[in-house]
Automatic annotation (TrEMBL):
Domain of life: Eukaryota
Compartments where found: Mitochondrion inner membrane
Bilayer-crossing regions: 20-39
Primary location: mitochondrion
Organism: Caenorhabditis angaria
Pfam family, one: COX6C
Keywords of the record: Membrane, Mitochondrion, Mitochondrion inner membrane, Transmembrane, Transmembrane helix
Protein name: Mitochondrial cytochrome c oxidase subunit VIc/VIIs domain-containing protein
Keyword Nucleotide-binding: no
GO cellular component: mitochondrial inner membrane
Membrane topology according to the record: Single-pass membrane protein
Pathway(s) of this molecule: Energy metabolism; oxidative phosphorylation
InterPro entries: Cytochrome_c_oxidase_VIc (IPR051389), Cytochrome_c_oxidase_VIc/VIIs (IPR034884), Cytochrome_c_oxidase_VIc_sf (IPR037169)
Amino acid sequence: MVSPSQTRNMLHQYGRRSLYVSFVVAVASTVVFNAAYVWPRHYAYENFFATYDPYKRMKEICDANKGYMHTCPKELAKLYESKGKEISQKH
């Protein structure tokens, strides 16, 4: 038979060890997730918006003349002309 000192509080020891291990794994997985996924995306978005010019992009889209963006000024002018509406040229 096993001596009582080896089996005494065995459940508490395993439970305590499991809590420590799970805490370390949780913290480590959070750090790895942030370092591998969140931070690279954050910096990529930061870089994109630092160099993004919406007016230049709108000009590129409208100059492509593919007609997929019907809110371009040129496309709206064509649409108004086809419906017989006048477009004001005031600036």
